[in-house]
Amino acid sequence: MGARSKARKRAVDLLFEAENRGMNAGDLLVARLAKPVTEAPLNQYTSDLVEGVVAHWNDINELLSTYSQGWTLDRMPSVDRAILRLGAFEVLYATEVPEGVAIAEAVELAKSLSTDDSPKFVNGLLARLAEVKPTLA
């Protein structure tokens, strides 16, 4: 697993933990940076990803809700929400990451962390966001 893939995994872990603890992911990130709970400190890309998701939280949630046909955010498994928020941030806002790479990385995270149906769902939803991205203001 490459450095950026590991950074994405750690970002998903933080987003997942924050939601399950009822915390703001940005606050959890600050706490983890100040006092790491693992041997390896969080790298800059992990921080950038979490900060980006937090900065665009409402827009990302609205877009995921709008384009996830038949699924509300609350109905999705919480790990899928974390993966989708991260993937949506990279697809829509992270200009240094090609959309295809962001989608493929999110699908790989879904394969390793979620249900058998999640990779297809994550792929479809993020591909739809990439498709409509030019029309978003």
TrEMBL record:
Keywords: RNA-binding, Transcription, Transcription antitermination, Transcription regulation. InterPro entries: NusB-like_sf, NusB_fam, NusB_RsmB_TIM44. Involved in transcription antitermination. Required for transcription of ribosomal RNA (rRNA) genes. Binds specifically to the boxA antiterminator sequence of the ribosomal RNA (rrn) operons. Belongs to the NusB family. One of its GO terms (molecular function) is RNA binding. GO terms for cellular component: cytosol. It comes from Pedococcus dokdonensis. One of its GO terms (biological process) is DNA-templated transcription termination. Coiled coil: none annotated. PANTHER family: ANTITERMINATION NUSB DOMAIN-CONTAINING PROTEIN (PTHR11078:SF3), N UTILIZATION SUBSTANCE PROTEIN B-RELATED (PTHR11078). It comes from the Bacteria. Pfam families: NusB. NCBIfam families: nusB. This is Transcription antitermination protein NusB. Residues 6-130 form the NusB/RsmB/TIM44 domain.
